[in-house]
Amino acid sequence: MTSSKPLPLFPAAAKAALADTQLRRNLGVATSTIRAKRARVVAELPDWEDLRAAGNASKAEVMRHLDAYLVQLEAAVQSAGGQVYWARDAAEANAIVTALVRAEGAGEVVKVKSLTTDEIKLNDALAAAGITAHETDLAELIIQLAHDTPSHILVPAIHKNRAEIRELFLRTIARRQELSDRPADLAGAARTYLRRTFLRARVAISGANFAIAETGAIGVVESEGNGRMCLTLPQTLITIMGIEKIIPTWEDLGVFLQLLPRSSTAERMNPYTSIWTGVTPGDGPQAFHLILLDNGRTRVLADDVGRQALYCIRCSACLNSCPVYSRTGGHAYGSVYPGPIGAILTPQLQGVENATSLPYASSLCGACYEVCPVRINIPEVLVHLRGAVVRQQQRRLAGRLAPEAVAMTLLARTFASPWRYERAQRLGWLCQQVFTRDGVISRLPGPLSGWTTMRDLKPAPRQSFRAWWRTRQGPMAI
Amino acid sequence: MRIALFITCFNDTLFPEVGQATVAILERLGHTVDFPEAQTCCGQMHYNTGYQREALPLVRHFVDVFADADVVVAPSASCVGMVRDMYPRAAELTGDSGLAVQVKVIIPRVYELTELLVNRLGVTDVGAYYPHRVTYHSTCHSLRVLHIGDAPLQLLRAVRGIDLVELPGASECCGFGGTFAVKNADTSMAMLGDKLRAVLDTQAEVCTAADTSCLMHIGGALHRQRAGVRTRHIAEILASTEVAR
Predict the structure, then answer these.
(1) What is the pLDDT of residue A4?
(2) What are phi and psi for residue A149, nearest 5 degrees?
């Protein structure tokens, strides 16, 4: 596990993001467009729910027997001519990659878009070793050129619009050039810039969408062809994958290749699917290194409710469907895994004590669960993790004495007894008089002011339902 | 049919008129309503905020109070959602296998009001009259936890005098989310802002739903803005009759 530091609190980060009107516009347009497209292509498949169930079952099977599948994968990759390394955490993984690149005598690498390498901050580690990492995915390139961080799993530069990207390119890779903000022109500028790099690089680094335990085949799906260039041109290929990316057989791949493109880019099939098995003499990279990364995943695996977060195939449908993400954007989550999946994955990978606000960054509306192609019950895990946060806080006296904890404990005691409950109703009716003006509560103190900044509150009426019921039935009915 | 009413603590305390309307509808349809007075709260707020240990006595209490009821109805999709979706895990957390069995037995007997009317009792016309322009917000728990689908709309379409108008983006969360509205007040407000715009776009005078909590959220902001639109629980619309006016 990386030496984790507490992440910034979500409500404060979200507050700043929500005030950025350009960000709101960019995100709103992008997420609503892709939501509608996804809904259309998913509706084309009459067996969509069966596919989701199959994807879920396949992942559940892998998690139950992950130890055996990992050893099976290792043996298969080795017998196909690849090398396999095991990395406990980010530092180990980065050290292995750095040593491998150095052994090749290379001063630069080309990269296929990979969240796992973002997770372990590989680019920083390589830079510290004097090795330049070139991102080749268009959006990742934009992020790298802007010294920014990704804000979306699939579309890392979703927070930027075309005009902003044009200006960035004019400052960096397309200086003194004529450039419009048409997507084709922007992609053309990136292509011209990247082509030279592809032809020069001797080492490529990729992540993996799938690893087939049975044969040792590794798969990467992408849209731009930059991945295909990286996976075929350089002499050496280094792949870093989280240990949860395993699927048992080629047959399982058939399920996931239907689920993933429709859920992520809303395409029936993604343009490029590259699959390789070890090394093929005379064809493609002649050295293949596979690094299996834990970095907190075995701890997630040990939690019977939380482990379903490891089923994730990184499609990003939950982000696009989330009413919170589509307004705050990804940076507010403070992690390479934003949105609903990030809210359940980050606290588990980095420890709930370091991400106490993330499990609360959801209204539990369930839109994420509805679209998840592998049926991860995200709301269930969020609630489960909230429980872990509360338990953690209650371990300390200060946590037990926090206003929220005290209020919750008192309320629970009150609700546990009909007599105390009814007394509290009457007491509440009395207390609210302090805040009621002209029959409305428009200002509340402390944390409750969050409610009244935008909303009025109707005070409780004098007669509760149960009081009315008694007048209606008479005391004999009790 | 004898139907036990689970009023929910929220409606009991803040919106008794929703309970009165529920009783009126069911009695008009010829059913007998019981109100077990020992009932308090389903424990949703505690459970969903992470105070699961604190919620467990409330789970046990609910199960005990309604143990003898054949049919339980609540005019709240989110509280029924709590029972149906979270009680099995809550019972598991207590380690009490007896409670787990009780929960398993009670779950199929607990209905949200519109679900009871349409799916269990097979009624869509409850004899209501409501001459107003109304838009319906399908709350998250109605839609994605209980999957009650268009049951509320079937009931509303049968109301005489109603001018029912579709709410754009009706399935999107209003931003309430229980303690979310306070813990993440800014995000909640951003979501609510979009919901208000959709409601106002319909030119409706009444926004309705199957959850008073979401309506308190939407209605609280409509009131603050003096937007000229009120919120009413669907039970209140279904309880309205020409004679009563």
Answers:
(1) 74
(2) -125, 150
pLDDT at B22 over 80: yes
B61: distance to nearest CA of chain A, Å? 7
Q: What is the model's pLDDT at position B119?
A: 97
The C-alpha of A68 sits at a distance from chain B's nearest C-alpha, in angstroms, of: 30
CATH 3.40.50.10420 in chain A: give the residue spans: 45-295
pLDDT-based confidence at residue A475 (cuts at 50, 70, 90)? very low
CB contact under 8 A, B220 and A456: yes
Give the Cα separation of B35 and B57 in Å (integer). 20
Place of tokens 């813990």: B183
Q: Does any CB of chain B come closer than 8 Å to the CB of residue A427?
A: no
On whether any CB of chain B is under 8 Å from the CB of A425, the answer is yes
What topology is assigned to A45-295 in CATH? Rossmann fold (3.40.50)
Contact A90, A120 (CB under 8 A): yes
Distance from the B211 Cα atom to the nearest Cα atom in chain A, whole angstroms: 13
**In chain B, where are the structural domains located?**
2-120, 133-239
Confirm whether pTM is higher than 0.90: yes
Share the mean pLDDT of chain B: 97
Nearest CA in chain B to A446: B182
Q: Of all residues in chain B, what percent carry a pLDDT higher than 90? A: 98
DSSP code, position B129: B
* Amino acid A472: pLDDT: 86
- Residues A199/A233, Cβ–Cβ less than 8 Å: yes
**Which residue type, as a one-letter code, is found at position B120?**
R
Residue corresponding to tokens 């779950």: B107
Contact with chain B for residue A398, Cβ under 8 A = no
Task: Give pLDDT tens digits for B6-16.
Answer: 999 999 999 99
Tell me the DSSP string of B20-55.
Answer: HHHHHHHHHTTPEEE--TT-----HHHHHHT-HHHH
- CATH classification for the domain delimited by B133-239, as one of 3.40.50, 3.40.1700, 3.30.70, 1.10.287: 3.40.50
Q: Does A3 touch chain B (CB under 8 A)?
A: no
Give the nearest chain B residue to A370 (CA atoms): B144
Cα A142 to Cα A173: distance, rounded to the nearest angstrom: 10
The verdict on a CB contact (< 8 Å) between B189 and A461 is: no
A440 SS3 class = strand
> Which candidate, B79, B86, B17, B13, places its Cα nearest to that of B51?
B86
A167 CB burial (10 A radius; 0-12, 13-18, 19+)? middle
- Please report residues of B whose CB lies closer than 8 A to that of A457: 216, 220
pLDDT tier, A447 (very low <50, low <70, confident <90, very high otherwise): confident
Q: Please give the pLDDT value at position A5.
A: 85
A202, A192 contact by CB (below 8 A): no
Select the residue from B56, B63, B173 to test the A interface by mutation, using most A Cβ atoms within 10 A. Answer: B173
